[in-house]
Amino acid sequence: MSRSFIAALLTVSASLALAAPAVAQQAAAPAASPMTSQQIAAFNQAVTDFTAGQTAQQAGDNGTAAAKYNAALPAIRDAVAADPGKIENVNFLANALYADAAAQGALGKMDRVIALYTESAPHWRKLVEAKPTDAASRNIFAGILIQMGNQKLASQDKIGADPLYREALTLARRSVAENGTDAVSRNVLLSALIGASQTANDPALTNEALSMGKAMLSDGSIDAMNKPSIEAMTSARAG
Fold first, then answer.
1. Rounded to whole angstroms, how far apart are CA atoms 22 and 51?
2. Cβ pair 210, 193 in contact under 8 A
3. Phi, psi of 184 (to 5 degrees)
4. Which among 55, 53, 140, 151 is positioned nearest to 104, based on CA atoms?
5. Long-range contacts of 124-132 (CB under 8 A, 24+ apart)
6. 9 closest CA partner among 81, 100, 124, 133
7. What is the DSSP code (8-state) at residue 70?
8. What value does the CA radius of gyration of the chain take, rounded to a whole number of Å?
9. Could you tell me if 140 and 168 are in contact, meaning their C-beta atoms sit under 8 angstroms apart?
């Protein structure tokens, strides 16, 4: 399970690369619960650490990236705790957790990936709700839900996996409805369909996954994560 999970994580991370938050310095200002001068200084250092982590990650140095993200996260968490309604801080925390998960996945530390994904999910949900037109964030969140579902499915927890795939399906369908030619959105939707077809006992979802997967195999738009699953489903159906 770990090899395919790491491949999926790195595929999503590469497709939806993060940028350092442009509003991060603004977020250091006192919020609903005033931050101390030490907390503000720590937050500003977190911005520097996050940016350094991004640079290291882009250069393939995931060990340094993970260390920088871990250094940055406590201060970002404090900022969100001080004012949970400040969406810029929520955005920053969601991105930092996601970037750290990608670094940890590249290092093979899958227990850390799942923990970071689980922590990040409520923040991504809040961000997507606050910015309904932000397709990139919507796709990242859907991808996170799918990977969380995959982890539960690998443990034979279909009941736990199903709502994760269902939520991802709703998000991915919206992205595809907005831009039906976007390969990233279509692959996220296909991943959600493949997962849900294994938990929902709904033949319609299986048929939809097969139909979409075959079309994407034909036109070459299917990604490395989805291709083996569709090929296996096609072989099983043929047998």
1. 11
2. no
3. -65, -50
4. 53
5. 124/94, 124/98, 126/87, 126/90, 127/87, 127/90, 127/91, 127/94, 128/171, 130/87, 130/90, 131/87
6. 100
7. H
8. 19
9. no
Shortest CA distance to 134 belongs to which of 97, 98, 91?
91
Q: Is 187 left (phi over 0), alpha (psi -120 to 50) or beta?
A: alpha
Measure the CA angle with vertex 56, ends 53 and 60; round to 5°.
Answer: 130
Angle between helices 158-178 and 135-154 (to 10 degrees): 160
- C-alpha torsion angle, residues 162, 165, 170, 176 (rounded to 10): -150
CA atoms within 13 A of residue 135's CA, in its CB half-sphere: 17
Tell me the mean pLDDT per 10 residues along the chain, length 239.
38 41 42 82 97 97 98 97 94 97 96 96 97 96 97 95 98 97 97 95 94 96 95 81
List Cβ<8 Å contacts ≥24 apart for 178-183. Answer: 178/135, 179/135, 182/135, 183/221, 183/223
Q: Which whole-number Å values give the CA distances from 100 to 9, 25, 176, in the listed order?
A: 11, 20, 27
Task: Judge contact between 5 and 150, C-beta under 8 A.
Answer: yes
At 160, the amino acid letter reads G
Burial class (CB in 10 A: 0-12, 13-18, 19+), 129: exposed
pLDDT for res 239: 57
